[in-house]
UniProtKB/TrEMBL annotation:
It comes from Rhodoplanes serenus. It is an enzyme of class 2 (transferase). GO terms for cellular component: cytosol. Essential for recycling GMP and indirectly, cGMP. Belongs to the guanylate kinase family. This is Guanylate kinase. It is found in: Cytoplasm.
Length: 224
């Protein structure tokens, strides 16, 4: 059965969802962009990661992350409940497998806010399903300013994240698309355009045979 908010294309072919993976150095804006996309787009689900990181004041359990202990993380990791996982900025993060597989099978797209290690693991496991986007800040000073303006982390944590930024940025060329996030509205429009184009690409590639067959049958009926 077609999903509730299916596009014409997905209804026609009973599609499998795609995996839209967004990465960036900390503070470049990927969380802002991905949350906007979830608010504006239908038929796409945000993958909620588990993490051993301490919750920030503005974060809500189960909405931004599931905050778990290291022991709980090890149990999930060792019993294959995580589709991918990585240590980032000294904490462990992972993508719970079951909600992602259920969403994809139901024809829903899934959005991931994960680092380059996770993006690589997903691409290795499900290569045809992954579309990857790397978000760059306009400059180093603006990256620092954004982390400071966000005002969620201590100066020591911000410094650590800036020190790790070069490594994350070093993987930009492994991604399908790269956005330089200067103006938020423009970056968001581009991210949305990527999703739309990739949906259309899959609709055409997944085989519109049935739809075209019906169209041709219709033409036979109405032509003399
Ligand atoms: N284009 C932009 N112009 C100005 N500020 C921005 C822009 N994009 C995001 N921001 C702001 O920069 C800060 C960092 O953004 P955000 O939290 O989305 O980064 P992130 O890449 O998800 O970081 P992290 O990996 O640490 O979660 C936020 O305060 C956000 O409002
Ligand atoms: N490989 C994974 N990386 C993840 C996951 N969830 C988040 N992240 C990345 O971690 C850093 C830090 O995030 P923060 O919320 O502490 O600022 C950032 O790059 C995220 O994209 C995950 O499940 N797997």
């Amino acid at each position: 059965m077609a999903p509730e908010h299916a596009t014409d294309e997905s209804a026609a072919i009973g599609r499998r969802g795609l995996m839209l993976v967004v990465s960036s150095p900390s503070g470049a804006g990927k969380t802002t962009l991905t949350r906007n996309l979830i608010d504006k787009e239908q038929q796409i689900t945000l993958s909620i990661s588990v993490t051993t990181r301490v919750r920030r004041p503005s974060e809500i359990e189960g909405v931004h992350y599931r905050f778990i202990s290291m022991r709980q993380f090890e149990i999930m990791r060792d019993s294959d409940q995580l589709l991918e996982w990585a240590e980032v900025h000294g904490n462990c993060y992972g993508t719970p497998r079951e909600p992602v597989e259920a969403a994809l099978a139901a024809g829903r797209d899934v959005l991931f806010d994960i680092d380059w290690q996770g993006a690589r693991q997903l691409d290795e496991k499900m290569p045809g399903d992954v579309v990857s986007v790397f978000v760059l800040p306009p400059s180093a000073t603006e990256l620092k300013a954004r982390l400071e303006r966000r005002a969620e982390d201590s100066a020591a944590i911000i410094n650590g994240r800036l020190r790790n930024a070069a490594e994350e940025i070093g993987h930009w060329s492994e991604y399908d698309y790269v956005l330089i996030n200067r103006d938020l509205g423009e970056s968001f429009a581009r991210l949305r355009a990527i999703l739309t184009a990739e949906r259309l690409k899959r609709a055409s590639r997944a085989g519109l045979d049935g739809f075209v067959g019906t169209l041709l049958d219709g033409l036979k009926v109405i032509t003399t």
